[in-house]
Amino acid sequence: MSTFARTDTSVVGRWWWTVDRWNLAALLALMAFGALLVLAASPAAADRIGVGTFQLAKRHFTLLPAAACMMISISLLSVRKIRRFAVIGLGITVVLLLATLVLGVEIKGATRWVNLLGFSLQPSEFAKPFFAVTIAWMLASAKTEEGIPGTWIAIGIWLVVISLLMMQPDLGQTVVITAIGGVQLFLAGLPMMLVGVFILLAALGLIIAYYTLPHVTARIDGFLDPATGNSFQVNRSMEAFKNGGLLGQGPGEGTIKSLLPDAHSDFIFSVAGEELGLIACLIIVCLFAFVVLRGFSRLLHENNLFVLLACTGLLTQFGLQAIINMASTLHLIPTKGMTLPFVSYGGSSLLALAVGMGMVLALTRRRPHGGYEA
Amino acid sequence: MSDWREDRKQGLLTNLRNPQSPKAVISLDGRIRQALEVGRTRLIVAGALMAMAFVIIGIRLVDLTLLQGSRSNTTSTAQEIDEAPPVQTRRADIVDRNGIVLATTLPTASLYAEPKKIPNPEIAARLLADILPEISQDKLLKKLSSDRAFIWIKRNLTPRQQYAINGLGIPGLNFEQEQRRFYPHENLSAHIVGFTDVDNKGLAGVEQSFDTALRENDAPLELSIDLRVQHILTEEMSAAMQEFSAIGAAGLVMDVNTGEVISSVSLPTFDPDSPGDAPDDARFNRATLGIYEMGSTFKLLTAAMALDEGVASVYDGYDVSKPIRISRFSITDYKPMKRWLSVPEILIYSSNIGTVQMALEVGTESQRKYLSNFGLLRTASTELSEVGTPLVPSPWREINTMTISYGHGIAVSPLQMTTAVSSLVNGGVMKPATFIKRDKDYVPAGRRILNEKTSILMRDMMRLVVLHGSGRNADAEGYLVGGKTGTADKLKGGRYVTNSRVSSFVAAFPMNNPRYVVYVMVDEPKGTKKTYGFATGGWVAAPVVKRVIERMAPLLGIQPVHIESADDSGNSILKKAKARMEGRKIAAR
């Protein structure tokens, strides 16, 4: 890779020397794994839904460079522009969330998709990064600006977003959004007493969801007692890992993709387990951990509260999604439809994560004055 | 940087060296610094939790792929479903004494449906009904459109059915490889071998009593049954049943030296491949589970105990000219002889009156002791679970002693009777009956219950019954058959009914060195023109025994003998005894 001179002060030149190149490399590596696995797993799914064998793979391969470009473009923005971008983005997302309720198409018992310029888009995916950054701004303002009730505004935004999500209904995204906001609130200095109260409230919320939403009841029952629920997917998933062993069956040699309808999206980690084996899976886990923990460690030197909170929110979203997805396929938690960031097939999820990680890269660029670039 | 002012306003920059910062900003900066400190500290907590989650995922990965993966050595198949029945290991075969397979286990396919995956249950039910005509289309439709994740349609398909269903190509219809018990000889040994349920659990016969052993062993279970003899006995008994319009029949062949049951037949029989289709009566094992009043065959036992106790010798005799009256009963003879009869003659003419007098001389206590030794007073201990418990009088009065002496007032199973007669002729040693093949050359010690001399005399007398008495029809030429008839009226509603009887014949052969006891019993035979309306043991069961012996003896390697002297000892006994009776007659005059 040709490098840039240290003295190059062009936008790209400055970017190259200030951006977190290691994290960028890790994210690109994840995309590469994703490309390989989607290529292996999507033909079976494509045949099942009756489009051309490589239709889904082709779509993923056109979206992947677009997502990478988008991520890098966003990472060129300044902190202030990122903030604006996020606030405007959240506004559009809320409109689109409202639109799904009116115009959305019902798929598997929930309306989550909306058609936009020929693309079917899942606004809830985009809600997460924009929400994280906007909330970070509000929470930071509450500390740094006199007279701005930032915390209350943040809570208001949270309520609006989750009520829109629960109307779809989409419990998974609600949990993720709440977790992001919760972590940010925690970092913003929420008194420990209230932290305890909020954890209790969250637990209560899950219990209420268990008793009021039938599909949640079924999922959790199925997890606790595999004999009663429909544990077909997760059993096949665990078998795939066992089948893969240390080195895997080899790319394309797996069988699980022909059995699981969601092998190319929610259960792609199982495909990785069967075809690439334990070592590759551990590498994937390490890549996720690396991105999150390296991001966190860079934030330990951060002097800007907004950047600290925003990046934490975005990295929490990224890490949490990865953890929930992998833990589901490994039967550590009840199955939850959630994509594996940058690895799973899925247009909205891929683009939204590119936006989110682009913002992380932008916010963690080194800036002068002992801090990072503004 | 152009945005500095803006940034400072937000507190993005906390540079105290900034000359423009007023005091207010310093205090604000202090608050921001504090907030940042808290944020960073708590970030470490969040990071630690995340790291922990990733480590747990890593550990779980290693656990699943390496530890569990190598343990289960998995072969994942599409057919595998969550509610699949437990995997069965192959159940051991059951073979007869010559190694002919009586029960084996075959791999078969069973059809199940995952109704949720079936796109059009109506069409699927219609197509399936053509292939599986035994299940109605409505029932199929109900199953195929149920909301269960898994439902059996039919267990154990034929290969042809499986092929046809495969050809339909209906998604959601799958096969489970199963094992099915198969009985190649169908009903021939059904009562002994028994049968299993669809999950190959033994429900009857040795399938039930040896259930665990059959599950755990690979070596076939060898029965004492000889399938060839089983076939002969079944065929001859079926013919008799038909001829005499009987409701059932039971037959046994026993090796007198080992106690092995060579053949055990109960008619009507059933097909163990579909035991559910058979009526209860067909599944009932008359030979081991049924108990009957044996009638005159018991006289052999009474004579044996009288000789053994020494209360009578073969030359002694009894006056049978008058019926015996006791309280309101009167005991008569079927064919009254109106004279003194010697012991052999009492058996030859099957005299009740003579037998009762013998029994009275033996006494109640001794009779009970002998019958107990013959194994007739308690449930036989044998491998089958279908074993009848005898009906024994209690209290045992003199009147019971009298009726029991000729086989009434006590009910035992044909198996018990056969075992008792075996000990009678084998030298007086009781050998427990077994359905399992004994090791070659192994002769169980058994328990001596009669003097050997008694046994030898009994052989002669049984031979005399066939030579001169009611058992003539059983005389298979050259095989020196000895035996005794038995005809007992059946008790119905507490009364003996004269035209509803159990007719039997118990035989042993060859009488110079008995090898086998053959017992045949026909349940409720009706007399025919050919038998002049008679349906007694001598007319009904004895000919069956004769034909069975004629057919089985060559197979079992028993040479027919044509020695005139073979019957000499018996005939001389009879001659001498008759002479003594003549003497008595003269003396009485």
Question: Mind explaining what this structure looks like?
Answer:
The complex is a heterodimer of chains A (374) and B (589). Chain A is mostly helical. Chain A has 15 helices and 3 strands. A 3-stranded antiparallel beta sheet of chain A has the order 1-2-3, covered by helices on one side. In chain A, helix 4 packs parallel to helix 6 (150-167). Mean pLDDT of chain A is 84; it is low at 370-374. In chain B, strand 1 and strand 2 (101-113) form a beta hairpin. In chain B, helix 13 (352-362) packs across helix 15 (398-405). The longest helix of chain B is centred in the first third of the chain and has 50 residues, at 23-72.
| Amino-to-carboxy terminus distance of chain B | 158 Å
Q: Approximately how much beta-strand content do the residues of chain A carry?
A: under 5%
Strand order of the largest sheet of chain A: 1-2-3
Unreliable stretches of chain A (pLDDT < 50, length at least 5) are: 370-374
Mean pLDDT of chain B: 85
Major sheet of chain A, described briefly?
3 strands, antiparallel
Fraction of residues of chain A in helices?
Answer: over 70%
How many helical elements of chain A?
Answer: 15
